[in-house]
Amino acid sequence: MRIVPTAPDEWHPHITVAGPEYEGLLYWLRSFVAVPLTGDALVLRGVLPPRGTDGGPRVALWNGRDLSSSVAFDIALTDAEGDLLDPLLHILALRRLAADHAAGRLAAPAGTDGFGIPVHDMRQRYAEIAAACRPTISDALDLPLRALTAQVQDLEDCALWGFVLADDATGRYYVRVPGEIKPEEIMVGVDVRLRDRTGTPKRHVGMLDVYLPSLAYDRDLTRHRVADGDGYCDMVCDVTEFVGGPEE
Questions:
Q1: Domain match, 70 and 176 both
Q2: Residue 57: its pLDDT value, please?
Q3: pTM as predicted
Q4: Is position 2 within any domain?
Q5: pLDDT tier at 180, thresholds 50, 70, 90
């Protein structure tokens, strides 16, 4: 069976079906066009919008060299209860599907699309697969970084200036903020703990992008001060509980 792309005039009535949920998926995945999504160096070939009222997005991967290595997955945006899946879960689930494809653990594809890419329809199992996946510490480090780079570029109060995995459990995000205690601008290292009490990397590390504007002045950040500067900043603050609540 060959899956033929929908004619352009048939796509327009369904554009609103995608909505902000699909836009979020597109934002989170687009960085993997050049950077491998998986350990076997698969990168993103495309993200295609949902088709019709019951369709899901289609994500295509390839090895970046040979188009015949391409594979696509039809996925779901929500879980069985209709709740939106977290962006990180999409990345984890696609890694798992790519690994299963490479190991031959998937059933034969349902067909190919108009570009000749084999397509696996994973919509029914996708939420279950995503829920079983576990993030790495690198995934947890990336969560605030993506949110900050998406949000602070338009803020006058603060700006992301760098980041580092400070230790095996802590991400440090360098934020340039205007001074109130001191007139000059200062650099603050904002620490966020990336592991829960069991040592497992977190799927959620708080809403640093949401709270950052309210912490954008050194008078507020001083309340969370835990150390002097590390050579890259004027002081270090730990805001884990402030942005995300008590640890699990």
A1: no
A2: 92
A3: 0.73
A4: no
A5: low
